[in-house]
Amino acid sequence: MTSSNRASFDRQLEDLQNDLLELGGMVEKAIAKSVEALRTRDLDGSREVVADDDKVDKARFDIEEKCILLIAQQQPLAKDLRQIIAILHISVELERMGDYAEGIGKISLLMGDAAPLKPLIDIPRMAGLASSMLHRSLDSLVNRDVDAALAVCDDDDEVDHLYDQVFRELLTFMIEDPKTIQRATYLLWTAHDIERMADRATNVAERVIFSVTGKMPTSTAFKD
Length: 224
What we know:
It is a single chain. 87% of the residues lie in helices and 0% in strands. It is mostly helical. The protein has seven helices and no strands. It has one domain (3-218): Phosphate transport system protein phou homolog 2, domain 2 (Methane Monooxygenase Hydroxylase, Chain G, domain 1), CATH 1.20.58. The chain has helices at residues 3-40, 43-74, 78-111, 122-143, 146-176, 181-213, 220-223. The model is unreliable at 219-224 (pLDDT under 50). The longest helix is centred in the first third of the chain and has 38 residues, at 3-40.
């Protein structure tokens, strides 16, 4: 690239990254709002989460279009191309996390005015961890911080542990009283959605690692 082309490319890449961070902020807000609306039985809040998912979808498709256009115009190579591809993949992960938040909103609406089977303690903790993982994975992208991204990957185990705990507890409810099966199932669906959010945040962190090093963290080459 010439110096002028390089400057133009850097500006476009920065704009792309800012768009991605904005999308990440939208998803973080959706996660928090969906779980809080479920916990407090705020059905209007749940409806807002479901409706706002269209904005998340649009933001993801806008980023995708910009990525394709930038590749076509600038024909980037090596780390520049990896960074664009990382942004493209991460936008998809964020959009899916938004879908999970929307799913929790729909679960809340299915529950209607009924109170949750049990006070929600571990599920909000799971959501807080997943949201933190998302936030830190995006920070690692901005800072090109491989160690921070690896730490996000490690935190997925804690979310999995909480999910197993919630699963066992709800299964016990269902075994002891079959009348609780439907209400327990709603919470199982919610916990599963949050567990998948954490998996997606881990995918984001792995993409950050690849964009910086050229190696996926699960590969033999990275471990060497």
